[in-house]
Amino acid sequence: MSSRPIAQARFPHVATANPTPAAQRDGLLADPGFGRVFTDHVATATWTAGEGWHDTAVRAAEPLTLHPAAAVLHYAQEIFEGLKAYRQPDGSVALFRPDLNAARFAHSARRLALPVLPAESFVEAVTALVRADEAWVPEPPASLYLRPFTVATEAFLGVRPAEEARFLVTASPAGPLFAGREAGVTLWISDTLSRAAPGGTGDAKCGGNYAAGLAAQALAKEHACDQVLFLDAREHRWLEESGTMNVLLVTADGELVTPPLGTILDGVTRRSVLELAAGHGLTAVERPISVEELRAGCADGSITEVFATGTAAVISPIVAFRSTAGDVVVGDGTPGERTLALHAELLDIQFGRVPDTRGWRLSV
Ligand SMILES: Cc1ncc(COP(=O)(O)O)c(C=O)c1O
Questions:
Q1: pLDDT at residue 9 in the model
Q2: Ligand 1 centroid vs 16 CA: distance in angstroms?
Q3: Quick check: CB of 184 below 6 Å from ligand 1?
């Protein structure tokens, strides 16, 4: 599998012949929602076992043509990423820690036996697309969500790593993921359906993980919850993560506790929040957390706040859990002080409202 960088890491821009009229675009940007509006272009590259990565460009966003036997349609050989471009106070645009997404994308590619796109090509592709569709980057608090992905395109009905693949980045102006849920979200504790098991693909960002989680998410909705909280597959006892977010707890003695990596996604937001913890008087701790500890801690006040992190969700306060064993209310059922402070600091960094002392912003 080629990991040679794309020559010169170039994604030449071939402008669409049918750009969205500016007035229509501005109308869409006024209320983009989440994940339903798409920009005019995509970044793309093709990979074959013989040639490695080639045919790189930013070009018109058009429907894909795939053979009905394309491997991704049968064996789910697919990986993706999610990151955002943020409008800065001076009108420029910045990405948030895209190097971490590039590294995770490479990790996912190895796990799914897909070709590894070199990190510099990943960042170049994303940057080239944002430049081409710069007019689609909304004003805060909205941002431009970027979805890089690789799919196995080879037409072959046999189970082996495909010898042809396509990388694309599509972009979607996005408002808050949980619009109207600023007062906090409620999670359904899934004590039967698991998302990932040791040795599986839980730490890769592949479509199959999400397909496997949808039934649990539907169950969460049936129980009037916003999302699901997955437990470990072996004992159904240890907290893992939510459908699209990592989970963190604040304790009364000043710890910010989160489950360790392994079967969960190594979230960029999770990592960033752990790095910001000390500035909020919190000690970051990665260790297993049981459901019993969650229940008892929320009941006796030793767990004061719970929140979830993700690129799309940013930081979402979790104010309650529901489960077959009963409900749990966190604190007084409203977003916690630390949660709100971390949320505010993260947004200030992403939207360029404070100096970038950690080198987390990449100007496009
Ligand atoms: C399963 C899962 N966990 C955690 C996260 C949070 O990761 P990040 O902060 O990198 O967006 C996501 C979102 O990408 C996710 O899909």
A1: 54
A2: 31
A3: no
Domains in the chain: ranges and CATH: 7-174 (3.30.470.10), 185-350 (3.20.10.10)
Query: 310 CA distance to ligand 1 centroid (A)?
Result: 5
Q: How confident is the model at residue 54 (pLDDT cuts 50, 70, 90)?
A: very high
Per DSSP bridges, beta strands 303-310 and 283-286 are unpaired
- What is the tens place of the pLDDT at every residue in 137-148? 999 999 999 999
Instruction: Evaluate the omega torsion of the peptide bond into residue 141 and state whether it is cis, within 30 degrees of 0.
Output: yes
pLDDT value at position 180?
A: 67
Residue of 245, 269, 347 best suited for mutating to test ligand 1, as the one with most atoms within 8 Å of CB: 245
Atom of ligand 1 nearest to the CA of 82: 14
Whose CA is closest to 99, among 87, 110, 115, 83?
A: 83
Q: How much is the average pLDDT of 86-114?
A: 98
Spatial separation of the C-alpha atoms in residues 247 and 94, rounded to whole Å? 26
Q: Is the CB of 246 under 6 A from ligand 1?
A: yes
Question: By the 8 A CB rule, do 331 and 304 touch?
Answer: yes
Nearest to 244 by CA among 204, 210, 219, 289: 210
For residue 279, pLDDT over 80 is answered with: yes
| Residues 43 and 171 sit within 8 Å (Cβ to Cβ) | no
pLDDT band at 8 (very low <50, low <70, confident <90, very high): very low
- SS3 (DSSP) at 54: strand
